[in-house]
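Checked the freezer inventory, then went back to the computational side. Two predictions to log before the end of the day. The first one is the construct we discussed on Monday; recording sequence and tokens without edits.
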Amino acid sequence: MRNRKKKLRFIYVGFIMALVLLMIGGGYFVYAAMTAQDQKANDFQVGQVETKIEEVFNENIQEVNLDNSIEKDVSIKNTGTINQFVRVMVLPEVRSFINEDDSYVQILPLIIGKDLELENMDANWLDGADGYYYYIGSEVAPDESTNRLFESIKLSSSLSEQYHESDFSIYLKVETINCEESAFRNAWWQGEIPLEEPLKTIDNTLLGLL
């Protein structure tokens, strides 16, 4: 009789454990299904933030003479699905080859505004003094473009002989963000409100466009 009670108790405990596991398993399955469904809804609603650099530039130019303007008309097009704020970093690079076999390369400094001039910059672009130029003309709507960032470039005649026969390149780094106060502040100045110029003016101007 005692053995039978032990056996019944074991079966009862086993049944309860199986029921609990079934409930846990079923709850997990339902939660996973709800999560997947929510994720699909989010993916469907989120707009795309995409851009394209548009420029007018003669890629056949092989040599750049000092103090001569070269056409390079640059603007940014919104190829996404939502309005965007835009900023651009201009990165000039000069590579000087030391050895005749080009096995050793030296990177030479090139300072914008001193060694390199970006000519005819549009007034709707402001230099943030942080390496970026900010477009403050408007929110850039889908399929629309910014005003030109600059129209041409010119190397200073004061560059030394060290720059002679070196390779000169300009790289553009474009960053865009959706047009919300928290979005551009979090992405571009770590959630802080700029208190120093010129970022203070840029921040206030972008807020005024919302």
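The second is the one RB wanted added to the comparison set:
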Amino acid sequence: MTWKIALLVAVGVLLVICIAATLLARSLDRLHKNVMKSRVALERALVDRARAALRVARCGVLDVASSIVVADLATAAIEASAYPIVDDGLDAIVIEDDGRTLSRGAGEPPDRLTLESELSRALRHSVDQLEATSPELEDLQRARVAVQMTRRFHNNHVSQARRVRRNWLVRLLHLHGRAPEPQMVNLDDRLDRE
């Protein structure tokens, strides 16, 4: 009789572990997808900011030197957008978005975090010092806020995925599979007007 009770307890424990593992695996898969979606949104926001900065540099509200610096950095940021923002291996995953497959640049990738941070600093030292307002400056301000928000959302998704990946059952059963650990995007995107 006691062996039947032990067998029922063992089956019950095994069933609970299987259910927990299934739920954790689904959660981790959903979190990895959220990381990639938020990364795509962040990369789009960075490109939008660079394009808005380029429009500001060309509209005549900045002095000549600031216009040249901002235009050069914005152009470099737009050209670098073909490469991933962080090199954690998750960008090897193909994402279908609006019926298009997002592709990545080939060759040696530039350091996009440094490039985007340099653009942020150039904008702080030039655009944030202006007293004037224009539609281009307002568009740029909205784009800069969008970069901050999407970066925060992305880093929040990354921290959630990392927390689940640290779970003992996830590590024991290797539930994350071959998916690399997602990395945070740490860049200087401060605004002087905050």
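For RB: Helices lie at 2-59, 64-80, 112-126, 135-165, 168-173. Residues 97 and 117 are 27 Å apart (CA to CA). Let me know if you want it refolded.
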